[in-house]
Amino acid sequence: MSAPPAPPLLLASTSPQRRAILAQLGLPFEVVAPPYEEVGDDPVEHAAGKARSVDGGERPVLGVDTLVVLDGDVLGKPAEPGEAEAMLERLGGRTHEVVSGLCLRTPAWEELHEETTRVTFRPLTARDLASYVASGEWEGRAGAYAIQGLGAALVEWIEGDYLNVVGLPAALLVRLLVARFPGVYGYG
Predict the structure, then answer these.
(1) How many CB atoms lie within 10 A of CB 182?
(2) What are phi and psi of 99, to 5 degrees?
(3) Distance (Å, rounded) from C-alpha 121 to C-alpha 25?
(4) Left (φ > 0), alpha (ψ -120 to 50) or beta: where does 77 sit?
(5) 44-69 pLDDT, tens per residue?
(6) What is the reported pTM?
(7) What domains are there in the chain, each with its CATH number?
(8) In sequence order, which residues have a C-beta less than 8 Å from that of residue 182 and are 6 or more positions away?
(9) What is the maximum alpha-carbon separation in the chain?
């Protein structure tokens, strides 16, 4: 007799990157747009707010929020090309942090965690900046880049979970699934 199928995680996010990572990990999931409004710059608080705003019944609910931080400044999603170029220029030749908050919860328990990945950009020329901004890939991206796309060419070095930079700290999520659901999701 085979084990019953794993209950799908309820992803409290509409991020296509987060959906792609969960699919890459082979995890069953469903997407629900969280009725949560982000105020402030605390990714753990935002992850918890997203997860808590969704009723998953008995299923585990996953909330995630990711920020890009340079010298203590949060670099959000640029509104226009000039702002994107200015952000990228600041990041060029320097190391910044990608900080994610993750909340995994059920009615019985809640796990809140923070994961940080350090990313170093190579020095960027005016041509690099103009080319990347012209690509439009910066739109809707914290820090004005997407490491899983053309933005990979901007990166010289990374320390930590690559998928955290894409949008979901996958290693952390797998550790939590192993601890809370050994064997249920194919891990542990």
Answers:
(1) 10
(2) -115, 125
(3) 27
(4) beta
(5) 999 999 999 999 999 999 999 999 99
(6) 0.93
(7) 9-180 (3.90.950.10)
(8) 188
(9) 63
